[in-house]
Amino acid sequence: MTPVVTLGETMALLSTPPWGRVTGGSSLPVGIGGAESNVAIGLVRLGVPCTWISRVGDDALGSFVTREIRAEGVRVLAPRDPDAPTGLMLKEMRGGKPARVRYYRRGSAASLLSISDIDDAVIAAADVVHLTGITAALGPGPLAMLGHVIDVAKASGTLVSFDVNYRATLWPPEQAAPVLARLAAAADVVFAGPEEAALLLGGEPGTDPVELARGVAKVGPATVVVKLGELGSLALQGDQQHRAAALEVTVVDPVGAGDAFVAGYLSGLVEACPVPECLWRGNAAGAAVCAVPGDWEGLPTREDIESRGDAGEVVR
């Protein structure tokens, strides 16, 4: 058993050449991408054991996905589906930077996730179970699974963490909003960007982030964390408001920074750190991922975070 459990789809990830066009003979590097496994890897690198639950196809990509995640020290509970493929995503580059991500996940093995894929004892034994709105968008089976996981967690005293993680390419806002709001109301800790918080409340994204956090808190979660990108982050816990400034970084690839932030924050939460320390860890992890290409490759270790900003000669 591990302190943190997360569940959701991880896909094989292809990236186009830096100039964007795919031509005959083009080489497309293969990686992996998935919000929940990003968080799991981030936690393990920060010293917090984590379990990732999913499904993959009985194919070469499924083997690759599970092998990569296991190699990072994450406990993997992902059966191989003989009848459905592993999902695929394509990162289209422009000028050497990501311009668009396309998903090929309809009918994937993970879209068939259901309550039967959950071992209640694994959820009950965890300190935290981390969920995202992406899983809710995959279909009725995954959505029912999230509801079951929340029920088990509530009955067992396991804290429920929920990252809204709205994906416009998966479902329209009018369909997503009530579902995501219901999941946020059942969570103990909610992570959202300003636009996502506004989506939960049916308001405009231009609203002050503190007011957005207060609005989400009224729905039910004890803690609401708003990710503000280059403006840092804030957390509202009861009547207490906390802020943390962003770390200065040259952004190379912002994809995955939000997942890194969640991993950093949850690492502090599991260790009972004060909220400002959790926010700082989240900001530091997010900045580290932004500084290098890839969704998760730049996830920092504890040593990376503790030494961040240190000046001096190269150790050799």
From TrEMBL:
Presence of keyword Kinase: yes
Key words of the record: Kinase, Transferase
GO molecular function: kinase activity
Gene3D superfamilies for this protein: 3.40.1190.20
Annotated protein name in UniProt: Sugar kinase
Pfam annotation, one family: PfkB
Source taxonomy: Bacteria, Bacillati, Actinomycetota, Actinomycetes, Pseudonocardiales
PROSITE patterns named in the record: PFKB_KINASES_2 (PS00584)
Record InterPro entries: Carb_kinase_PfkB-like (IPR052700), Carboh/pur_kinase_PfkB_CS (IPR002173), PfkB_dom (IPR011611), Ribokinase-like (IPR029056)
Annotated ranges, domain Carbohydrate kinase PfkB: 2-301
Keyword Iron: no
Sequence similarity: Belongs to the carbohydrate kinase PfkB family.
